Amino acid sequence: MRTIWREVAAFGIVGALAFVVETTSFNLLAFGPPGEGPLHAVPVSASAVATLLAMLVSWFGNRHWTYRDRKGPINPREVAWFVGVNLVGLVITAAPVYVSHELFGLSSPLSDNVARLIGWAAATVVRFTVYRGRVFTSHREDSSDVPALMRRRTGAWRKGRLWPGFLALMAAVCGYLVSTVFHPGFLTADSVEQLLQAEGTRPVTDWHPPVMALLWRVLIHTTDALSTMAALQTALLWGTLWVLAVALWKRTGSRPLSLLMFGFGLAPHIANFTGVVWKDVHMAYALLAVCAIALFARELPTGHDRARWALLALALLFMAYAILVRKNAFPAVLPLLPMLVFALWPAPGRRRWLIAVGSLLAFTAVASVVVSSATRPIAVRQYAQIPLDDVTHVLTPQEVRSAAEQAGATPSFRNDLVETAQNCQRKKILWDAYFTCYPHHPGYKDAIGPHFTADESDVLVKMWVQQMPHQASGYVKYRTRTFARLLFEGNLRYAGGTFNGTPKNVHVDPNLDAMMKSYVTGFAHDVPWLFQAWFWLAVALVLTLRRRWPGPWSRELRLLGLSSVLYIACYLPTAPQANYRYVYWPALAGTLALILIAAGAVTRRRALGAGEQVPDRAAAGEPPTPSDSSRTSLASTSPAGPVQRDTTTGTPEESHPAARLRRGDAAAR
User: Fold this and answer.
1) Which of 30, 88, 515, 584 is the most buried (most CB within 10 A)?
2) CB contact at 8 A, 432 and 576
3) Is the overall model pTM greater than 0.90, yes or no?
4) Residue 665 pLDDT > 60, yes or no?
5) Cα–Cα dist 245/295, whole Å
6) Spatial distance between the Cα atoms of 244 and 592, rounded to a whole number of angstroms
7) How confident is the model at residue 44 (pLDDT cuts 50, 70, 90)?
8) Under 8 Å CB-to-CB from 469, ≥6 apart: which residues?
9) Partners of 186 in the β-ladder
10) What CA–CA distance (Å, rounded) separates 573 from 605?
11) Least confident of 75-89, 226-240, 305-319
12) What 3-state class would DSSP assign to 491?
């Protein structure tokens, strides 16, 4: 039975890889990146071709790994059995697709993939039975080295050498499925503006980050597909989650806890924006990648100086990108920099601090110059929206007219400002006056998009400087209202795949869009606090203000909380709307922190339980039981091997995560 289950595990991994190959090739052949693949009209043929490709993967994987102890010269009888059972599997896999199309009239990507999943599961059972009994049977009875080979194979699995690869496979599958749901990327009005700039239809402006327009332009020219931007950000998220899962496993030794990290990416308040091309999403994933690098760097053994400097450079590049994408990412980066430096070097010293801070400033400055030189963005003075909101909501229309005259506004601009204040007052609109109350002239954004002239922005800044100090109470009252609305009345929990301005070459699958919308909005109805800024601000404050957290990530938890607090605080004087996307980074940081807290609590309880039971039995004069011995051995062994010795003192060094956890708690105390 032990041999069977070991074979099942290896067969399952090979089968999962074959499944990824089969599913990917089927979707490329049937639906393709543009929306229609070469075999779109014949999905049964696409399923058959995909199964043939998966057969090759299955043959090499099972022959050279799952049943390598039985491997001998290629036998024509075994090849015949293999081809025969896979042809049967082809029919079994394709049959549900045929039934789905011909009997039920279903032809969406979702229905086709569900039908193939049912057929694939049934075919897998048939394949395993025949593989074991008829195909890979060479040297089965007379092979004397089977036990040694099995021990080596299962030993590698038990010691964890194969676990990071399995986590990578899981991350790839999850990332592919999420990318399929959002293909070719959900676009909003901001996304479309960026796309037009990337395609060269409109000139690049600083209304939206030029670095995103440049990156999208490069991807489009390289792949000739606009969907690569959404695929890239999905790959970044799931690649980051894989790094976090590996770091969590290395620290705790718990495989279930490492798998919990993938639930992070599938959570409704995280997955809702995974495929939406937004600067908020890019910034959040870049900062999450910095956290992943920091947690992974903590698990590096002593030495590896080159690897540490390489990780520092990579993390600083992500930080610089986040700052270029959103200017208010800078305060969120400030706590993450010490998290990174302390993870790389527990005692960094002044020189390393100077190098880290200087490199971040240099990377940001150089990248900004390079992007500006490549795109030459037109200044549209987006910052003028903030004083426009303040002066038109704090002052009365008569006061606006007087303030505009005092600031030197032209008669036409002065009349526009007065009309803006009147419109917002009449419609009871709280903010975003430029788009909701300002009297735009026809064609105002045909050339370069929404913009302020240099004179208009100067007038608004002068009005703010001249009037707000004298209207301090009104200003504080207004900004308190907008911030409270952001905290307690957040909206836009889900951004659909289509709207009136969606380009004609963007085709989102309506069934997948409806499925994701139902998933997200259902949770938003049942647990609305997951999508509210007040909840994530409360989580961030608790993380920041608590003196010490149990487990090995006490410093990281406090710095994550501080990053979220600073980021949300930036919206106190600037909030233009109550969109959930403005707190997307605090939601990611808070969710990661909650997972780390849960992992720390579980491993700490497990370590304390293992440490208390054995001494109690010995104090009572009872001999230790085998289970006690096994628990005791956990303190001196790790998933990667036995006890190591400190290279400087020669004393045993505990390497199991539970022992490291107890040692970290003692040091913190």
Assistant:
1) 30
2) yes
3) no
4) no
5) 10
6) 9
7) low
8) none
9) 276
10) 44
11) 75-89
12) strand
Of the two residues 617 and 35, the one the predictor is more confident about is 35
Q: How far apart are CA 625 and CA 617, in angstroms?
A: 9
C-alpha to C-alpha distance for 302 and 51, rounded to whole angstroms: 47
Q: CB neighbours (10 Å) of residue 644?
A: 14
Q: Which of the 8 DSSP states describes residue 135? A: I
* Partners of 232 in the β-ladder: none
Which residues are bridge partners to 557 per DSSP? Answer: none
Q: Which helix (H) or strand (E) holds 653?
A: strand 652-653
Among 528, 384, 507, smallest CA distance to 450 is for: 384
Q: Rounded to 10 degrees, what is the CA torsion of 466, 468, 473, 478?
A: 150
Phi, psi torsion values for 641, nearest 5 degrees: 155, -170
DSSP 165-196: HHHHHHHHHHHHHHHHHHTT-B--HHHHHHHH
pLDDT computed for residue 37 by the predictor: 64
What's the gap between Cα 208 and its chain centre?
22
* Cβ atoms of residues 612 and 632 within 8 Å: no
Contact (CB, 8 A) for 183 and 177: no
Mean pLDDT of 373-387: 93
Q: What is the mean pLDDT of the chain?
A: 83
Q: What is the mean pLDDT of residues 162-178?
A: 90
Could you tell me if 664 and 251 are in contact, meaning their C-beta atoms sit under 8 angstroms apart? no
Q: 12: which 2 tokens?
A: 């399952």
Q: At what angle do helices 228-252 and 657-668 cross, to 10 degrees?
A: 80
CB atoms within 10 A of CB 4: 11
Contact 289, 241 (CB under 8 A): no
pLDDT of residue 19: 76
pLDDT tens digit sequence for 524-542? 999 999 999 999 999 999 9
**Residue 397: its pLDDT value, please?**
94
- Which DSSP letter does residue 499 get? -
For the ranges 2-6, 22-26, 72-76, the lowest mean pLDDT is seen at 2-6
